[in-house]
Design a protein that fits this description.
It is a multi-pass membrane protein. By secondary structure, the protein is mainly α. It contains twelve helices and no strands. It has two domains: 43 residues; 212 residues, MetI-like fold (Orthogonal Bundle), CATH 1.10.3720.10. Helices cover 72% and strands 0% of the residues.
Length: 287
């Protein structure tokens, strides 16, 4: 009995030490991941002359809130923010709409090519979005779509759709067939079944797809800079380019505009992170 008690105490001590080590490792990883954001905020509140001092971080003699005022006004922040919200909002809407209908068609409707169509759509996950930069530009230039909202919406939706389809099919597979059979017997048509019965049951996956689509497209810049030439539809990352001229030597203001550009995506991720992890985990288990 005494030996068993001693072994139990030793096991509990080892388990406690293991938890402490695990927490230390996780804390170090978290600090490493968060440090670039801390560094960005720290430099954005300092003056440009203080940036050339030694050390990774700066303790500003006086916090320079004027850096953010300059970045907000001269970087045309509100205009580019409005464009980003419109473009990303429409992209999320179309991705959700198409992925729900495509997932239902591939998993619930009986037709010979359903499996092949689903496979072809999912193959889009293997193609990098910027691999289509030049072909898309040639097509848009021929059709007169350059410098329009469609030049960004089409690739944003197309390359977010495979991920949305993958998550939606996993959730649809978990919905009992009996619910749809009962709806058909009650006289429901296909659209009422999809949007009034199936869609409300897909709330976890809808939240996950919407958030991931928004975050993936929010900071995209290469396609926007290639397809857009006028400020009409330029997105938020373009605000950084506004300081390549007269503010090229004012690094503090450049850090401020980068902080403003990153802030919306960071806020969305912090507030809705649990929905992302929950939806992905549930979709993986159900799929």
């Amino acid at each position: 009995m005494k030996k068993n008690n001693v072994n139990q105490k030793k096991g509990a001590a080892h388990a406690g030490i293991g938890k402490i080590v695990l927490w230390i490792v996780l804390l170090l990883v978290a600090v490493i991941q968060i440090f670039p954001l801390i560094w960005l905020l720290d430099f954005s509140l300092a003056s440009s002359t203080e940036m050339f001092t030694n050390g990774l971080l700066i303790l500003p003699e006086k916090i320079q809130w004027g850096n953010y005022v300059t970045a907000f006004v001269d970087g045309h922040f509100l205009q580019y923010l409005k464009n980003s919200i419109i473009i990303n909002g429409l992209a999320v809407f179309f991705v959700l709409l198409i992925s729900i209908m495509a997932a239902y068609a591939c998993r619930r409707m009986r037709w010979k090519l359903s499996g092949l169509v689903k496979t072809i759509l999912l193959l889009g996950m293997m193609i990098p979005i910027h691999a289509t930069l030049l072909p898309n530009y040639k097509i848009y230039n021929t059709l007169g779509l350059t410098d329009t909202i469609w030049a960004l919406l089409i690739p944003y939706v197309a390359f977010s759709l495979p991920q949305g389809l993958f998550l939606m099919t996993g959730f649809i597979d978990s919905i009992p067939w009996e619910m749809e059979e009962a709806a058909v017997m009650d006289g429901c048509g296909i659209y009422r079944i999809v949007f009034q019965i199936i869609t409300p049951m897909l709330k976890p996956s809808i939240a996950t797809v919407a958030i991931m689509t928004f975050l993936n497209n929010w900071n995209e810049f290469i396609m926007a800079s290639t397809y857009l030439s006028t400020p009409k539809w330029k997105t938020l990352p373009f605000s950084v380019l506004e300081f390549t001229g007269q503010y090229s030597s004012n690094y503090a203001v450049q850090f401020a505009v980068m902080a403003l550009t990153a802030a919306p995506a960071v806020i969305v991720y912090i507030l809705l992170n649990k929905h992302i992890t929950k939806g992905v985990a549930m979709g993986a288990v159900k799929g």
